[in-house]
């Protein structure tokens, strides 16, 4: 088995504007909240936890970046292409929600980088055209590989 490698990695805002080349990306950890019973046992509460993602950018489109940071929230699309065992796969991460942007001080012979912290209220991950993850914190919906794992909780409280 050969190691996987990324052939491209880009960030778009509102689905159309190319913001920049992704240098590093930490996708959101998708988990449900846990509680404790009076007996001390951990139980799954069936409610999705808040999401957080981080993106480091280089080669930034200044006009679109300036327009993006003027907003409180945005829809971000991260597109990457991965080659694994000789097979190319496109992975698309779509996130909607508030964010924070921070410019890096930069280093000699390196361009300035921009770090984004994203706090998505909605997150989807599609691998080779198949939905792998879908989270909507408002609904709440948490689908992993097509199965809504918080459906029972949502139905019990509605």
3D structure, described in words:
The protein is mainly beta. 9% of the residues lie in helices and 58% in strands. The chain has two helices and twelve strands; from the N terminus they run βββββαβββββββα. It has helices at residues 62-69, 151-157, and strands at residues 5-13, 17-26, 32-36, 42-48, 53-60, 73-84, 87-103, 114-118, 122-127, 130-136, 141-144, 147-148. The strands form two sheets. The chain has a six-stranded antiparallel beta barrel. A hairpin with a 3-residue loop joins β1 (5-13) and β2. The protein is globular and about 55 Å long. It starts with a strand and ends with a helix.
Features:
six-stranded antiparallel beta barrel; 158 residues; two-stranded antiparallel ribbon; single chain; mainly beta
Low-confidence stretches: none
Largest sheet: 6 strands, antiparallel, barrel
Helix count?
2
User: What's the pLDDT, averaged over the residues?
Assistant: 85
Structural class comes to mainly beta
As a percent range, the share of strand residues is over 45%
Pattern of helices and strands = EEEEEHEEEEEEEH
Overall helicity: under 10%
How are the strands of the largest sheet arranged? 1-2-5-8-7-6
Task: Work out the radius of gyration.
Answer: 18 Å
* Basic shape: globular
Topology, number of strands? 12
Distance between the termini: 47 Å
């Amino acid at each position: 088995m050969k190691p996987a490698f990324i052939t491209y990695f880009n960030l778009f805002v509102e689905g159309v504007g190319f913001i920049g080349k992704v240098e590093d990306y930490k996708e959101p950890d998708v988990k449900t909240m846990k509680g404790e019973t009076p007996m001390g046992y951990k139980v799954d509460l069936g409610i999705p936890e808040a999401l957080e993602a981080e993106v480091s950018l280089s080669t930034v489109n200044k006009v679109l970046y300036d327009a993006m940071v003027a907003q409180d929230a945005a829809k971000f699309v991260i597109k990457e292409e991965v080659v694994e065992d000789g097979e190319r796969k496109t992975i698309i991460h779509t996130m909607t929600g508030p964010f924070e942007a921070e410019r890096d001080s930069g280093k000699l012979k390196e361009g300035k980088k921009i770090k984004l912290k994203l706090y998505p209220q909605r997150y989807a991950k599609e691998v080779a055209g198949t939905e792998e993850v879908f989270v909507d914190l408002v609904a709440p919906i948490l689908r992993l590989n097509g199965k809504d794992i918080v459906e029972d909780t949502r139905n019990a409280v509605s």
